[in-house]
């Protein structure tokens, strides 16, 4: 028995031990399952997201020295966008130093799945083969920084269905159904595409990859897709956006073809060019490759983004006919693509590579531009100063360019086949304080191969072809100016880099800015060159050159780049250049039509490709014309230039074209539209400046420019009147002359529009002297300053007239002026509103400018014996400071600076009524010290009509401060105004106590904002409805802008609830100005809407509308695409749409407050994504109204004792009336100029004054003191009393005489009375009848309408 127990015990121990061992072995097996799986690839199943994640993590754990797993972001549904990095020392921070970065991206379309698996297989192949007897793989991993993203769209994959070859199911797009390969920024925006851009919330995958691309600066990449078998290279779309057939060539087209061919030729099916896909069996691709846009247009593609915004060249590979083949096909797909994947990766090592370092300390220079001449695509160095530029074998001129460093160029650098050739650059920093002219480009670089020097084609003046000095040169001769050395055609990116480089190298004299953007979003760059390039210096003329207005006329573009280089590099060493730069502010716009240039082609002689902008409009037929109505929509390039010309007081200009060789001067067209001489008033001046150019260009001056092309064409002395050559309506040069101070000519620079690059040096030589001589012409004629004789301040917008020449110029904001004239004696007249004009005779010399200054005397009351009897108002320092503040905002760039200094970011959208109400409430809660919200009443559907007051004391009466009212939403279908006013309110509140200007305005102004008059209509209106009337009226179907009547006799039905609420606000005393925002056009209108023949105070009302339009970037230019466009964006309301009962008419007639209506855009209810642009356009104009509210005339009325007189009537210019408020204060806006003011109050003598109103000064306070009225019936009191006493005495004497006479004859009268009694009955009857008649008459009058007629009432109630 004991033995049996022992045996049983041993058996149990063995079982337990065996179980424990088995469990332990099972645990080990489970723990290693992931690694085991990594070793056992079946090539027969797809990995879902969980399996893919596990697989990649397993590989990273198994090969930690050469593999690192990370995520670049997350998908919509939160899945990681995994990237497996494969390289030697993958975890080291500096592992990428000296290695080019390469990437593969797969599964961008979730239902195109072969790439997802193939890239996992590639990663396994590289990791397993490294150091395991495969030298090719080992070399790749050692020398390359490889990034593999198997799935860019993991959400889409999870929805895709295996076996779906044609993508008919879901999964192509991401979880928000966004096509990721149509969502990247595109270089060719489609004007017909109405949908807004994709935001990060809808495509986080795209934004994550974009950040990744910009951060890593990849060199080469492939994007793997499915659906056919081909390699597709950039560009993927074209400006034309035709569905197919348009070859869209990139600057590296040959290189892209080569790279695509590398992949295709190693793929057994792709190499044939015949995919033989079931859905399109006849489709073929020559050599297995295709240009993307030629195949089909793909806007927003990833490969183009890589090329244009990263350093990376990317090709798209379509791997299989079936998008989601069955898993059984995966082994075959891997076998077909393996060699292609490896061979394509190896091409990241071709071309040229190297480092860029600083010469002074050897530090690496990141973001240095590497420029290859002849290839208009640059890239930049990485953070270690390293660069990799893929190139095909050949000779290249390669430059390294960095801000603050002298650029270097290696000429004829030989790129060999195979491994990249090394080329290092060492850049010298630009020494601080060294004259800009001393920093010159060199051709020295550290290189593995000695380059052959490239022959120069430029010949310096005074030198022979070799550049050596001529034999007659003396040692003491002044140095020859440095000539441009880089003659080539610059595409947009190249030009941009050139401009940025020169602005950076020569900051003391060169300033680069953009005046706007082209249709396709390219910047319209302007380089200003002067000794103080960022500001207008009084007395220094502004000059401009504009080139490339027609995109295929390119000589002007290149000459202007040459001129920039010439001026910058010779400043301080060449006397002529130095004198011009010091005395002139030179503006140079190399390209007004950068979009057109990009599609033009070198070698074009007489063609039209690229002539027009991207909307296919000729920009030189797009300006407003004096003889012809231009109906085409104003283009963004045109609008930008017009705004630019209005903002700078240009004096002289040239517009550079090509196609002939002549200087063309105004006018460009005439009334008849025929070819004949169209003379402008300054015809002789234009002759003078035109010949100044042509004489310095011998071929032009000869007059037979293009004998081979146009043998009969002849221009005497190389110049011509525009219309005498051919008519050009809508041209830029005429618009310059008629709408600004600027005299502009058009210069045709050559017979060939787009000549070969080799010919550019000869164009520079032909035009260099002429271009400089033309700049000299800006220093001819007369110049000076118009100032106030009392305080010496410059008078802006003063007019300079020349007797006998019907063309005036105006002074700049600082009072200075320039007026081009030919030599001779002229009578000049300077005039300005509020000043006495002044005449001076001046003799203009031949070769210099004559200086003539004017000091004008103000027209004031003292000069006319109209001095006010009361004392002047006391000006305390704070008032004077505020007046100076208003002047600063009104002159120069004060208001523009305020706009720039108060940038607010907002996500614009339309708010419904509830959101609007909550927004206003939020303002009062967040800014309680400066805001107050109140209800004016309710709409028909009981929505509250809210008004918001913004001021430093919103709940206290401030009668001395101007009160301005902003109103919107009277038409519910035009809600833009509502959103603008809500943003305006937020803008003011947020900037209060932060921005000094905004704070001052709020402290001195009472601002009332009524964002929605018609909330019921707004709830009905629909977004993106530009012409719909839905929501225009209130719930009763009433147009509220026809419901404001002041007299019961004018009203047929009772006023609407909304009207009553707003009328109560309008009738509150003391409102100075009202601005109402509406939609459906782009203009500002002024009263009246009703059809009246004359408008009292029209000058002021029109002026206020003009102020708004002038401060709007587009409105003052007019928009032919909008209905009812007025002159300079301003129109009398009745001329737009005449109607009775308008809000602004009521405001003027009964509220005694001028009101203008601003129509913010052609579309009534535009898409929400346009709101940000509309806000930017109206922000300055809205602020200008706040400034304008402080101008005009203001004052206080009181009696001799100092008692304020409330309710006194102030009559302006004999018509318009305003009334004094509490404290006797009044304020009235008036147009700049002289005005008569009469003050009338019961019991006081009438007072009269004359005031002068300035366009830029705040209203000064005037005090009107009343004397008691001692007159009776307009006669002196003493005279009236004496006359009354004499009259009473005479009456008493006369009464006594009559009594005496009557008494003496009393007996004789008794008989008469007896007879009267006899006829008593007859007499009483007569009296009774007479009495009845009187009663009947009274009864008839009782029912007469004693109210005034409509017409009488209409005019009786006007101001």
From TrEMBL:
Comp. bias intervals (Basic and acidic residues): 164-180
Transmembrane segments: 1279-1302
Record bears the keyword Membrane: yes
UniProt signal peptide: 1-22
Gene Ontology BP term (one): peptide metabolic process
Low complexity bias (residue ranges): 441-479
Keyword annotations from UniProtKB, A to Z: Carboxypeptidase, Glycoprotein, Hydrolase, Membrane, Metal-binding, Metalloprotease, Protease, Signal, Transmembrane, Transmembrane helix, Zinc
Domain of life according to the entry: Eukaryota
Domain Peptidase M14: 45-348, 488-778, 909-1189
Keyword Hydrolase recorded: yes
Protein family membership: Belongs to the peptidase M14 family.
Name the record gives this protein: Carboxypeptidase D
The species this protein was found in: Merluccius polli
Protein's gene: Cpd
